[in-house]
Amino acid sequence: MVMDILNTSRKEIVKWLKSNLSRYGIKLRKKLSQVMMVEPKAFRRIVEAINVCVQNCSIRNPVVLEVGAGLGTLTTAIGGNIKAYVVGIEIDKRFTSLLKEVQDLYPNIDIIIGDARRIIEAFRFVHVVAGNLPYHITSDLVLAISRSNAICSVITIQKDVADRLMAKPGTKNYGKISLFVQYMFDVELIDILPPQFFIPAPEVSSAIVLMKRKRGYSEYSTVESIVKCLFSFRRKHLLKSLKKCIGSEINIVELDLSDDLWRKRVYQLAPEDIRKLATIVRSITSS
């Protein structure tokens, strides 16, 4: 049984979800961060954002990967309202029978039972990644999306993680994941969702975030391990930290110390500094 999730009430969605969980003998597991969205306005905001992503792709039949298909609510909302090939990914095998019904009803929806962290990066062609990301692996999934060739992503995550993804260089919330994501994407807040928009209600608010690709992963990959090391010296000056992370002597004479880059502390590194840093690291490690 499939519900028109965009045009019904929260009360009806809750009733439908509980009925189907009972029908298949499924109890939501806390260790898998299983919470179900039940607010139709939130579903509409997500589908609208995905539709914008799809239209901007300028591709006839774009591929949309949905992380955490669960009972298929968002899966069918995407597949039934957007012209795209939708692949719902679900790690919990208990949902297989119900998702098989969804797959049989929609010719443009396929289901994969597996770990989205591996599947996202393994897909040769993926244009949009969407989903209500499990709290316990949110960072892993955001990194996987960034390393993929996805053009756009619409994800629901904890608000505090969203704050980190959008944080400005030099601020308290700014860290290596902020730099990582902002180098490759323009990040935009779509909406903030209170706990009562989910069952069971989580302890924190969530946020719908839109990430629009501006650069690929390849260039960042050359300095990814260095940046990870640098942020273990978050408040140190960049040059001093770089010496520790490179693991070899740096010839100060060859560096342009008048460059503003060297006046920065690690947590002030901006996305636009990465290209310059990559060039410097290549020069140091190849000499």
Automatic annotation (TrEMBL):
S-adenosyl-L-methionine binds at residues 37, 68, 90, 115, 132. The lineage of its organism: Archaea, Thermoproteota, Thermoprotei, Desulfurococcales, Desulfurococcaceae. PROSITE patterns: RRNA_A_DIMETH, SAM_RNA_A_N6_MT. Keywords: Cytoplasm, Methyltransferase, RNA-binding, rRNA processing, S-adenosyl-L-methionine, Transferase. InterPro entries: KsgA/Erm (IPR001737), rRNA_Ade_diMease-like_C (IPR023165), rRNA_Ade_Mease_Trfase_CS (IPR020596), rRNA_Ade_methylase_Trfase_N (IPR020598), rRNA_adenine_dimethylase (IPR011530), SAM-dependent_MTases_sf (IPR029063). Its EC number is 2.1.1.182. Residues 42-215 form the Ribosomal RNA adenine methylase transferase N-terminal domain. Belongs to the class I-like SAM-binding methyltransferase superfamily. rRNA adenine N(6)-methyltransferase family. One of its GO terms (molecular function) is RNA binding. The keyword Electron transport does not apply. It is an enzyme of class 2 (transferase). This is Ribosomal RNA small subunit methyltransferase A.
